[in-house]
Write a structure and sequence with these properties.
It contains 26 helices and 26 strands. The chain is α+β, with helices and mostly antiparallel strands and 807 residues long. Its main location: membrane.
Length: 807
């Protein structure tokens, strides 16, 4: 049928503005999926897209004069396509291991993807699975017909990415590009602590395209070394590691040059976050953009010389190609991590869009780049680097445009740096939990220095080191000494004048920082934009987060998800008590990662900290929290668990805001071990009560009931010993008569807590049970004239990716 009317010759592909709206619709649809509580059904999405496309075709065919309706339907089709694409990736393309594999030991042949990093008990590597098979126990025949047939499930692991925790010493030093055979690998789902203010480990690993975590004590067998750029990068990294002294300056050089952050200490990372400079040591948009800029300047110089000689007519293709070549070389040196890949892809789209034969505005190029990134990496929007690097690359490339006549270059640079610092503040607060007052000034001063005085010499030294090491070692050593001196000065300055505030957002939704960023863009926009005087209100939820207040006689209990361990926050109207301080695994302490963010995000400071007994899963964070809250009153079940002034747990009662607290402990003669020495806490409000039993076993529980004449009724029970089979006896449940119980157990812990027999005892009495390892941090509110309100954080916060790990 021939189209007639005023719109008969309209083609949307030639309408740059229309394609921009469609790209924006696709990005919005793809990103919007992550705001949903669960993935939508593919069947419904396909049906929705089919109907939308049909209506679009009909409107174009029969309603030629209704061009606006046609455009709206096109954009809606793009939104539907983006939603379908993201949902299709996670439901069909991404490899989720079959839950039955979590019960098996596997032999994995893997390729190491990046430089190894140190961990608490060894080292961890990013790897890609080549072949997976079931491990065969020693002495078992090769043909074991009793083993389950999981060949299809094992083959599905091929090409999936994993985070592997390995022993410190393997049969050979591990390096990127190597192929290894690892035996007896125990794989686990991607699962982290779900607690207000805590780092979202699951979002981070899914953003990096991982499928599972694996651990093994096997020393493995090296099968081969890839003879490519990975091998060259390994050799280069080890060469520079041996060449430079073990100082903070050397660690910064290696991080800037090749994304080797193994030398950065915890103190270095803390200072980077306090100063707002952490983005400088993560090779992403800023660094790739700088490399492109340096390559472009080099190409421009060569192009001008060739033009003078009459050998070149147009130098701009050479400028762009040289810039891309230098950026690609730098990305190769840094290991081609996902942030570097995305930044380089955005550069390519930006350059192609800026070609003279294809005139496309900067905003359209940015939208096209984001569309391409999501098409290639649908999980990219889950990572903060997706947004941070996109804005950094866009800002740097904007600086390549001709300087506006009404502004000098330094004025533009100053304006861009201040605007960028202001715009990124909500994302920095959300991802690094810190508000740095010095960040805008330091970025204004240090980013130009790094861009002009540090990165270019480092790249030149990197090239020179391929020819000669003697003078390169001297120059790099001198540069390391200068950086170390400046780093120590900066550290001393922040030790003397802490120009930052810890700023954990707590329960504030991730939508809050996004809204604040949009408001900031609106605020910095043209003067003609409406409502500019009111957009600052979008910052209020971040600056002044609201917390639900308690009345007299009311209490709130939060059993934090700290893994296999206990940390319970009890709050009344004006007071806070912390029961146990969470676990520690070697040097890895959970308290700064879960307990501190929750307390600061909720605006709480504990008046009293009670450590039930001297087990690392209960007292692991005591030293850290004592330094953080020195004014708190400490009570301990065993005095040897702390080396500062603390009270021994004795039978004692006190009141806070109409809530009665009573601490109890068995007599010394009845304490057979550390567990039976646990300090027990009973909380009695106006309407409900709670009982926290520490790690008492059934025998100790019986002795406790005798001491209290069976007067331990509790509406809520924090079950003893994480739900162990030896705790929570029948008689204890009959005496306390709880309506709900909480198990403070780690997700799929190797102890098997809570034990199936223990669960059966609770279920036979119709007692509702919650598990911090499965439900996340569990919040219990005791309110006037209302039943106990109990909810797990994974349910209330409802993040999409929290539903993917099997319960």
């Amino acid at each position: 049928m021939r189209l007639t009317g005023i719109n008969a010759n309209y083609t949307w592909m030639s309408d740059r503005q229309m394609t921009g709206w469609m790209a924006l619709g696709f990005v919005a649809g793809a990103v919007g999926v992550y705001a949903l509580p669960m993935l939508p059904s593919l069947i419904w999405l396909i049906a929705l897209l089919s109907v939308t496309l049909m209506l679009t075709f009909i409107s174009r065919l029969y309603l030629a004069r209704q061009l606006n309706a046609f455009k709206v339907l096109l954009v809606f089709s793009a939104v539907s396509t983006g939603t379908l694409w993201t949902s299709f990736y996670w439901q069909v393309c991404h490899s989720f291991p079959d839950p039955r594999l979590f019960e098996q030991r596997l032999d994995l042949q893997v390729v190491v993807l990046d430089l190894p990093e140190s961990s608490t008990y060894g080292q961890r590597v990013w790897a890609k699975v080549v072949v997976a098979s079931l491990s065969r126990p020693a002495g078992l025949a090769s043909q074991d017909h009793s083993a389950p047939d999981l060949s299809a499930e094992l083959s599905a692991l091929t090409s999936s990415r994993a985070l592997l925790y390995l022993p410190s010493e393997l049969s050979s030093p591990v390096a990127a590009g190597q192929t290894w055979l690892l035996h007896q690998v125990k794989i686990k789902p991607l699962h982290g602590n779900a607690s207000p203010g805590a780092f979202d480990f699951e979002r981070w690993v899914y953003a990096h395209g991982l499928s599972f975590i694996g651990t093994t004590r096997d020393k493995g067998r090296l099968l081969g070394q890839e003879a490519g750029w990975q091998a060259w990068r390994n050799e280069f990294a080890e060469q520079w590691r041996a060449m430079l002294p073990d100082t903070s300056g050397s660690a910064i050089i290696r991080a800037l040059l090749m994304a080797d952050r193994r030398g950065l200490s915890d103190d270095d990372w803390s200072l980077l976050q306090q100063t707002g400079l952490a983005h400088l040591v993560a090779v992403s948009g800023l660094h790739i953009g700088l490399a492109f800029l340096l390559g472009g300047l080099l190409g421009q110089g060569v192009g001008r010389s060739l033009q003078r000689l009459g050998l070149l007519y147009n130098r701009w293709p050479l400028v762009y190609m040289t810039g891309l070549a230098v950026a690609a070389a730098y990305a190769t040196l840094s290991g081609w991590g996902l942030p570097a890949q995305r930044a380089f892809f955005m550069l390519v789209v930006w350059v192609v869009g800026g070609w003279r034969a294809i005139p496309v505005s900067g905003w359209l190029r940015l939208l096209y780049a984001l569309t391409g990134i999501i098409l290639l990496w649908p999980g990219a929007p889950m990572g903060a680097d997706f947004w941070l690097s996109s804005m950094a690359v866009a800002t740097l490339l904007w600086l390549l445009q001709p300087v506006r006549p009404q502004h000098k270059f330094w004025q533009q640079w100053l304006g861009v740096q201040l605007a960028l610092s202001f715009l990124m503040l909500p994302m920095v607060m959300a991802n690094f939990a810190i508000l740095s007052f010095a960040s805008p000034l330091l970025n204004l001063l240090i980013v130009p220095v790094v861009s002009t005085l540090l990165v270019p010499p480092l790249l030149l030294l990197a090239v020179a080191s391929l020819v000669s090491l003697h003078w390169v070692e001297k120059a790099a050593g001198y540069l390391s000494d200068v950086l170390t001196t400046l780093w120590l000065l900066l550290k001393n300055l922040f030790d003397a004048y802490p120009l930052y505030l810890p700023w954990h957002l707590g329960d504030v939704s991730m939508l809050g920082p996004g809204v604040a960023m949009v408001a900031s863009i609106w605020l910095l926009g043209a003067k003609a934009l409406p409502g500019k005087r009111w957009v600052w209100l979008a910052w209020l939820p971040l600056v002044f987060p609201q917390h639900e207040q308690l009345g007299a006689g009311e209490w709130r209990l939060v059993a934090l998800d700290v893994g296999q361990g206990t940390a319970v926050v009890l709050q009344t109207k004006h007071h806070t008590l912390l029961y146990d301080t969470g676990p520690a695994y070697g040097d890895f302490v959970v308290a700064p990662r879960v307990i501190e963010p929750y307390l600061q995000g909720a605006g709480l400071e504990p008046d009293r900290i009670l450590v039930s007994h001297d087990d690392r899963d209960h007292s692991g964070g005591a030293v850290y929290l004592h330094a953080l809250y020195p004014a708190a009153q400490w009570t301990v079940g065993q005095l040897q668990s702390v080396d500062w002034k603390a009270e021994q747990c004795v039978d004692n009662t006190w009141q806070w805001d109409g809530v009665t607290f009573r601490q109890l402990q068995l007599p010394v003669a009845a304490q057979r071990d550390d567990n039976s020495a646990s300090c027990v806490l009973h909380v009695q409000g106006t309407h409900h009560s709670a009982l926290l039993l520490g790690d008492l076993d059934q025998r100790a529980e019986q002795r406790l009931m005798e001491l209290t004449n069976n007067e331990l009724q509790a509406s809520l029970l924090v079950a003893s010993h994480h739900g162990s089979r030896t705790g929570s006896s029948e008689s204890m449940l009959d005496v306390t008569r709880p309506v709900a119980a909480i198990f403070t157990a780690g997700y799929r812990n190797h102890f098997g807590h809570p034990h199936v027999e223990t669960l059966r005892r609770f279920q036979s009495r119709a007692i509702a049970t919650y598990n911090t390892g499965v439900d996340g941090s569990v919040t219990v509110d005791s309110r006037a004239d209302k039943p106990l309100r109990i909810a797990g954080y994974r349910e209330t916060d409802g993040r999409l990716w929290w539903q993917w790990a099997p319960r």
